[in-house]
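Weekly modeling sync, notes
Attendees: S.R. (lead), two postdocs, one rotation student

Agenda item 3: backlog of single-chain predictions. S.R. asked that every request posted to the team notebook include the full sequence so nobody has to chase files. The rotation student volunteered to paste the first one in as an example of the format we agreed on. Action items at the bottom.

Example entry:
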Amino acid sequence: MWDWVGGRTSELSVVGLLPAALQGFEIESLLAGAKACDEVTRGHSTRQNPAALLALAWFHAVDGKGGRNMIVIPYKDRLELLTRYLQQLIMESLGKRHSITGEVVNQGLSVFGNKGSTDQHSYIQQLRDGLDDFFVTFVEVLLDQDGTPTFVESGVTTGDYLHGFLLGTRQALTEDGRPSVTITIDRVSAFTVGVIIALFERAVGFYANLVGINAYHQPGVEAGKKAAGEVIALESRILEFIISNRGMAFTTTQIANSIGAETEEEHVFKICEHLAANKTRGIIKTRMADPFCSTYLGR
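Predicted structure, as returned to the notebook:
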């Protein structure tokens, strides 16, 4: 895989396809769905381009400044992980401090939510009556199931109730002026999942262009990785100091001063706590009333 392909856009690369194939997914259908979406979203007519329309809906909902959160509610158990996937795709792509011209813009679009089939009751109350700081993306699936439906009363199936929840919730939000977008697919299949992945990937690219940012780099992520590496290096210094002074107990202040990490004493404390909690690391903690007076020694 090319090194410029970000993790969030690698679902349809070998990184995503290989584990999907090993789990028995129809990856040819997945790719076919993405291809079909690509063909439509490359069109120059905005009204005929679903990814462009979706990006424009986002732009309208958040005024191009990310002032609202996106709440994603798929009404299908098999789409339970869709929101988590979209969190990474959208937030990592659009959460940028600088524009492509170097201006500080602090752009972003926060994504939350869960499947509507069981979890809508945990947050619909706030969406209906609470803070007006969001817009909802409903994912509607027309086919309830391939097998025999389950009737919960005369002429009404469980799927009918689920569809009623979706339409009723959407109507209740609309009546209160809460905006929403609805994406409808006929069924959940490898093909339609491929379509959805490609649709959101392209919408992210269009939205980034609308607000003038680069959706395909991740300086914040790289900064986090660099900071994590520095913490690991600090841990090695702490371990080396404690073990080389085996049998002697030290507070985190003493450890920090001894290894030249005076400005990183909080990290020293957190690392020592972590090491002491994992008995195999050989660090023994003597607890004091004041946590910062506790001592650590190597056994």
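Discussion: group reviewed the output briefly. The CA atoms of residues 74 and 168 lie 14 Å apart.
Action items: rotation student to repeat for the remaining queue; S.R. to check formatting next week.
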